[in-house]
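A sample follows:
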Amino acid sequence: MKVISFLFFLTIPLLSFSKTFTSKIHHIDESSDGSPHLIMLIEGDVIFLSDNKNEYLDSLKRSKELNRSLKIQTDDQNNFISVGSLKVNMDNSDAFLNKEDHLDVNSSYEPTILNSYNDATQIFRRMRRDYQTNSQCYNRAHIWTWEEYNRSQLRSKKYFLFFTARYIRAYRYHWWFHVTPAVSINGLGDRMLDRRYTVEIKSIKDWTDKFIYSKRSCPIVFKYNDYRNNQYAEHCYLIPVSMYFWQPRDIERRDRLGTEKRSFIKSEVNYAYWEAF
């Protein structure tokens, strides 16, 4: 990833091993009990900012307000070390997302109902496994659904799994969301096709159990605020959407504007290929 210059750089002594995230902040869950503040990045990562480093919190909040791209350094447990603000950002999707070229437009969306479990298994086995090791889940899922749609006209679903602040704090979890394609099977309901983290198609509960260490069920909701405004009621929430949805911001935009996303967008597909494969 290329960095041109910095507007500011805040540091504390470096640890022996560190990671770097180049991203924007999606939201911040502030601590009121001495536990770390949670810095949620748009790609899905969570950074833990100790409450004794509150001098950094105001800068991070300001960066979020300005929609500023940041270079954040952490230790191997995602604990905050330092942050720099990028004046010119060369590793963000902005360069790709310059216009909305709709690749297909549907006035309504009815997911394909597969005839059998075997049909779903065959789709799962066709999904590409040559993804980049550090690729983002939403980019992998977008290409998997896009390629199968072009191959067989399958209208699949995606399930966004949102981890709450309650769960993240309890298990020091490093993500605030994950997403995977899903298909509907006649008589069986929905099955999850996560080619990165499973070796076969899974039921919804078996899939969430891969990520929810408490094994608690994740309520299915249909509005982003049902997750966002209930951070301490559950460990997780699921939001099912069409294959066209790329990132959580698509769900937020739909809820805010009241309009469904009804097509793949060329720039989003291009960026997903570039980042994930």
